[in-house]
Structure formats: C-alpha cells, structure tokens
Hints:
Elements: E1 6-11, E2 14-20, H1 23-29, H2 46-60, E3 66-69, E4 76-82, E5 99-102, E6 107-111, E7 114-118, E8 124-128, H3 131-139, E9 144-145, H4 146-152, H5 158-166, E10 170-173, H6 195-203, H7 251-258, H8 273-283, E11 288-292, E12 302-306, E13 318-324, E14 333-338, E15 343-347, H9 351-365, E16 373-380, H10 381-385, H11 392-413, E17 417-421, H12 426-433, E18 440-449
Helix pairs in contact: 1-2, 9-12
The chain binds flavin mononucleotide.
Protein name: SagB family peptide dehydrogenase
Domain Cyanobactin oxidase ThcOx second: 100-209
Domain Nitroreductase: 256-450
Amino acid sequence: xxxxxxxxxxxxxxxxxxxxxxxAAVDRAGHLTSGLPLASFAGKGVLARQVHALVRRLAGHGLxxxxxxxxxxxxxLVVIEPQVAEYWPQRAKLGSGDTIVLSRFAYLRRRDSEMVxxxxxxxxxxxxxxxxxxxxxxxxxxxxxxxxxxxxAASANLDLLGLLLDSKMLIRLNAKDGDGLRVxxxxxxxxxxxxxxxxxxxxxxxxxxxxxxxxxxxHAGVVPPLPAVRPPWPGKKIDLGKxxxxxxxxxxxxxxxxxxxxxxxxxxxxVTLAExxxxxxxxxxxxxxxxxxxxxxxxxxxxxxxxxxxSAGGAYELELYLAVLNCGELARGLYHYDAGSHALVAIxxxxxxxxxxxxxxxxxxDASGPPQVLITIAARFGRISWKYxxxxxxxxxxxxxxxxQTFYLTATDMGLGGCAIGTCNIDLFAKMTxxxxxxxxxxxxxxxxxxxxxxxxx
Length: 458
Ligand SMILES: Cc1cc2nc3c(=O)[nH]c(=O)nc-3n(C[C@H](O)[C@H](O)[C@H](O)COP(=O)(O)O)c2cc1C
C-alpha cells in the first residue's frame, strides 16, 4: 500500500497492480490479512463499493481465501480455497424440506496435515478443520433431507451446506430422482465420465486448479534424477548391431532421424494456407466413413471414420482447433478443422483470449516469439467413454501421442517445423469456444510453422 492510495499485491517475485483507493479503503484493506467479513462491504456506500472492487480484483487473481468460523470461539471450521479465477462464495438457498447428497465426483483426502474436500466440478476446494463436518459429509453419501440431517448432526450448518451446493460438491435431489444416486447430476454429459478420469483431466491440465504445473522440479531436493538410459539387466546380452542391414536407409527412417522440435519460427516467411491445407490433409483428414450395426443385443448403429493416424477403438475423438497467428493469406483467429469436409471454420473469439493462448504456448516452449499456427487438440470425451470404462481418458492421451508424432513427421517431410506442448488451459479454451470443459476440451497442443534458419556462423 502506497501513500498515494495505490495498492499492489506481491507474490513470488511478481507484482499485480490493484488500483488507486481512498485512504479509508486502504485502511480497511489492511484488515484483509486477518479477515474482513463479507457483510462489511456489502453496502452501497462509497467505502463499501471501493473495498468490494478491491476484493473482487484480488479474487479475480485467486488471492483470497474464505473462512467460515465458529461463532462461539472464532475457530476455523472450513476455509474455502478458490481453484478458478471466477470463484466467489455464494450460498445456494436451502430449505428444511430439501434433499441433498454428495456429488459422486467429490472426495476427501489428506493434503499435508489438512483434510481437503475437492471435486473436479467445483471452482474451489474446502479445507475441513472440524471432524464433525467430515462426519456430516460421510453421512451425505446417502441422500438426506435437511431437516433430518440437522436433527442428527449439529455441524450441518446451513451456510456451509449452501456453499457446498453452490460449488457442486453437493447436489439437490427432486422427488423424481429415485434413490438420488443418479450419475448425471443434472447434466447429461456427466453420465459418460468415470470419477478418476474427470479428476485426471482437470488436475493434469491448467485452468481448474492452483497446484504447480509443468517443470517445477518439486522433488529435486528429495530424490536424485533418474539416468537418461535405464541401467541394463544383468542377463546375457545379444548385440543387435551385427544384425543391422548395411543397405540404404529408407526415406521414412531418414525422416525419423531428421525430426526434431522447432520452437522458433521465421516470421518473415510464415506457413502458407496451401501448406496448412496439405498438412491437415496428410495428418488428420477423414478418408472414409461408414456405419456398423449393433455391437451388442439392442445396441444402436454406430458411425465410424478412417483417418491417417491410428485411434483407440477407431473412435477418432480428437478435434483440431487452430489458433492462426501468422499464416500467409489466412486471417488471425481461431478456426475449427472440419476433418469430414476438409475445411476451416472460423470461431469468434476475443483478441485478448487469442493472445493469452499464444503467450502461454510461447512461455511453455521458452520461445523467442509466438508460433505461426498453434494447434489445440481437443477431445470429444463422450465419443470414447460411451464404450470404454476406466481406460477412456488414458486412451485419449495415447491417441494424442499418435497424432503428435504424425504432426512432427509430416512437418519434417514438408520442410516445416513444430513442437509438442505439454500443458493446455482447459478453462481458457472453454471461454474461447463456449464448450463446457467436460464435453469437449483440450488434451494436447502442437506449435507449427516454418522454422527460423540458424544465423550463419561468422
Ligand atoms: C508430449 C510432449 C510434450 C512436450 N511438451 C513440451 C513443452 O511444453 N515445451 C517444449 O518446449 N517442448 C515440449 N516437448 C518437446 C520435447 O521437449 C522434445 O520432443 C524432446 O526434448 C526431444 O527433442 P526433439 O523433439 O527435438 O527430438 C514435448 C514433447 C512431447 C512428446
């Protein structure tokens, strides 16, 4: 807090400017380190509005936690830790006649020395400090009428239950929901998700959690790095070198040797639309389509397609979204590749979102500039989980691997270059496309372009 009323938040060497405020608001903001009741800035006065604006800005950067404490002794009962930037605590209204149950995606676990309630659907996690609340959560593995629940569990605080319901840790049941353990949770697209798959998807991408992502070397001080090549088994060695053919090396073998990642691109000579068309035609185009009758008694007819790369179960659940940043005749923007008709379809997105996508890729590659085309590989999750239980998400990631190698080899063959990117922000993609994160979302990225020629050595 500066004397001129400006406030900035500093964390891990970064500083975030939060704006200019009156002396009274700066004074009030000082209380945020120990806690400021939400009600204290809910009013319409100038001071309340200023504090509200500041707090919203802090929340937007994920810098606030929300404490729920015991009115008796001020001890923390629960602390809410936001996982998405938009999270703001809201209490869903609950009446004593309502019936609620724990979401099948919610789970309690130990994190360091705390018990946390998490869910891939929730925008926040709840740190549980009172064991009685954990007991109430356990009771909520079966549908409970609020009036009944409160009779048996004093800790069933309506404020907390309302917060849990709002964040989708709990679901409210209607009379027609039968035993209440329905798998759709009010959203038909969730039927197709196994618990572990949705947790894996949201925790191994960016956008819906606040854990470290990527090369953070978290275990560097604890465990030495493993060697690049596995130490050999002690058994008898059969030297394969003497069996290798000495004849000419095939074009394909050369391509495999030549392939390497290219992270810096020649901005003066961007990839052309014709090259992009050829790249997509070679790697991802639908080659044929057909239908197959029921796989099992009473099952429906299923449509299939053939494409240049292999795909688990022939599902071809992967879709390509191209962020075009610098490509000859093609306007900057986001496009979907319609693999069936070999066409690009423009998607309306904001320039800032496109920039955020490009900057994240540049950062992930430690590159000197943006890629010319950034391909986001998204999955239509239901296409594969409709058939496969337990292995659906892992099959998707294996398919991504196939496609990425196909991209690398095709780019090399065409004299272009590219680089796989291990992270992607599922929240940003959802905002850019309007697609819900559990319906169709990113599972891989590939930066494509014409590689920059190395500077001639003097
Ligand atoms: C799944 C996958 C994810 C990758 N993620 C990144 C990444 O985020 N940033 C990056 O600079 N390189 C990334 N790479 C590229 C690897 O660093 C690169 O393939 C590896 O160092 C071998 O080098 P080469 O591709 O030039 O042979 C990724 C590669 C793969 C296959």
